[in-house]
Design a protein that fits this description.
This protein has 171 residues and is mainly α. It has a domain at 48-125: Orthogonal Bundle (Arc Repressor Mutant, subunit A), CATH 1.10.10.10. 69% of the residues lie in helices and 10% in strands. It contains 7 helices and 3 strands; from the N terminus they run αααβααββαα. The chain has helices at 7-15, 21-45, 51-65, 73-80, 84-96, 118-138, 144-170, and strands spanning 71-72, 100-105, 108-116. It has a 3-stranded antiparallel sheet. Helix 4 (73-80) crosses helix 5. The relative contact order is 0.08.
Length: 171
């Protein structure tokens, strides 16, 4: 007796895209990203933050290291590739936790600049102390050469996607 295809398989075959390399690759990429989020959520929870909050904290820490005094909400949103209202919600929660401060930008009373507080810097330092082994564990399924290949391929895909975004923004 022949096994029946799964509902997902049947839907994919109906559209004729089940075995196309682009579809398989995108589906695998999305699936891997979801699994990475599942692995990282409890890791960040150990430090009392979410993955989204960590993204903001790390972005602010990197901007400080580059000599920037703070980031406007719009700049933070652009760097994180997140819509401004979403960033505002994350900043609100981080501010309540005492990890960031929001100040008015001199010369522009409507704009707000976000900076890490001392408590925020201390948290980033604690997370980074454990971060290397966490990242190594996530990528342990790939050898160093495969990790380099993945980095190269994701860089190539990122450049392509940035080009698509730029094209759409000029339309």
């Amino acid at each position: 007796m022949k096994a029946q295809p799964s509902a997902e398989s049947a839907r994919a075959h109906a559209g004729g895209t089940a075995d196309r390399p682009a579809d398989l690759a995108l589906r695998s990429l999305v699936h891997a990203f979801g699994l990475i989020e599942r692995v990282m959520q409890p890791y960040f929870a150990r430090f009392g933050v979410t993955g989204s909050q960590w993204g903001v904290l790390r972005t602010l820490q990197r901007s400080e290291a580059a000599g920037e005094a703070g980031l406007r909400l719009t700049d933070l949103s652009n760097r994180l590739l997140v819509r401004p209202p979403s960033v505002t919600g994350v900043i609100d929660r981080l501010e309540r936790l005492g990890l960031v401060a929001r100040d008015t930008v001199p010369g522009d009373l409507r704009a707000k600049s976000v900076t890490l507080t001392r408590k925020g810097r201390e948290l980033v330092t604690r997370v980074l102390a454990a971060h290397g082994p966490q990242v190594e564990g996530i990528l342990a399924g790939l050898n160093p050469g495969e990790q380099a290949d993945l980095h190269r391929l994701l860089g190539k895909l990122t450049s392509h996607l940035e080009g698509l975004v730029a094209e759409r923004e000029t339309e």
